[in-house]
């Protein structure tokens, strides 16, 4: 029986993936979330608290009792209207939840992975200016400045644009982390496949729950079949929750595998593609700096 560990499986396309993993396949799923869920085995996890991430990793170790993890799916995420929010650790919330807590979990659970295991980290095409998503593209992946945006001399003073940058930059960090993780000696020794998964634009998920009411309402309405289906025919970046979730499950199950040397996957019109990520996401120096700076922020060696 494959053993999988997942975040972000309680709503949106992540819930579709979790249901597929638990109902359609002989899988043991350990699901980290803030509240109990009907899918999988619930273990408390609040990604806005690094100590909660550490406690979750410890609980997973204890619960498994030496049983290796076949797939680690780090899918949870948030988008916020500005960069004023701070976690208990004093870090900007979007960066902490979307990147840093997942970075910490990947590091803490790396040695539990089975030979040939899969790690899937959910990123976003908005990290790449070439997608022309309409959101403020990332200017950098400097972990210290993203954790403390008030120190960033180039921060946009407009709250909404600053919030957009926090989101797209956090997703750039995810793509860079996937690249670094795939090259880590422990991952190579275990022949771990690492994928940064861009599900495309998926309306109707819980991602926008913290946005202002008009934006949140529009997000929900565009996720309905009546509005979503016509839009998806016009925009190749748009996908349904079911399509995004089923593809995420396929990646976790190894039914969809990356070509040699590829760590970035993008769902386009329901079809999984393996394009290049953004120019910043392909830079070795940026990836190394992010890995080491993130390690310092969570108290781990580089």
UniProtKB/TrEMBL annotation:
Keyword Ligase: no
Keyword rRNA-binding carried by entry: no
Basic and acidic residues bias spans: 127-163
GO terms of molecular function: oxidoreductase activity
Species of origin: Frankia nepalensis
Family: Belongs to the short-chain dehydrogenases/reductases (SDR) family.
Name the UniProt record assigns to this protein: SDR family NAD(P)-dependent oxidoreductase
Region annotation (Disordered) ranges: 124-163
Residues spanning the signal sequence: none
Source superkingdom: Bacteria
Keyword annotations of the record: Oxidoreductase
């Amino acid at each position: 029986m494959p053993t999988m560990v997942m975040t972000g499986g309680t709503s949106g396309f992540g819930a579709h993936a979790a249901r597929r993993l638990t109902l359609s396949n002989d899988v043991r799923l350990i699901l980290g979330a803030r509240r109990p869920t009907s899918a999988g085995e619930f273990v408390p996890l609040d990604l806005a608290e690094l100590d909660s991430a550490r406690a979750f990793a410890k609980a997973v170790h204890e619960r498994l009792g030496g049983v290796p993890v076949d797939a680690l799916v780090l899918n949870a995420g948030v988008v916020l209207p500005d960069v004023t929010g701070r976690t208990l650790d004093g870090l900007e919330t979007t960066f902490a939840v979307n990147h840093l807590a997942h970075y910490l979990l990947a590091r803490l659970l790396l040695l539990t992975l089975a030979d040939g295991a899969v790690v899937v980290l959910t990123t976003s095409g908005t990290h790449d200016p070439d997608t022309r998503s309409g959101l403020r593209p990332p200017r950098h992946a400097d972990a210290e400045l993203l954790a403390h945006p008030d120190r960033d001399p180039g921060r946009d003073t407009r709250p909404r644009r600053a919030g957009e940058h926090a989101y797209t930059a956090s997703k750039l960090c995810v793509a860079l982390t996937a690249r670094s993780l795939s090259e880590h000696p422990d991952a190579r020794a275990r022949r771990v496949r690492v994928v940064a998964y861009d599900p495309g634009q998926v309306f109707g998920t819980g991602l926008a729950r913290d946005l202002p009411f008009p934006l949140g309402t529009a997000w929900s309405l565009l996720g309905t079949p009546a509005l979503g289906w016509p839009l998806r025919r016009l925009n190749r970046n748009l996908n349904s929750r079911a399509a995004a979730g089923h593809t995420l499950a396929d990646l976790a199950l190894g039914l969809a595998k990356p070509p040699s040397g590829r760590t970035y996957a993008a769902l386009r019109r329901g079809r999984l593609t393996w394009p290049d990520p953004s120019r910043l996401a392909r830079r070795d120096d940026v990836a190394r700096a992010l890995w080491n700076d993130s390690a310092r922020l969570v108290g781990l060696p580089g």
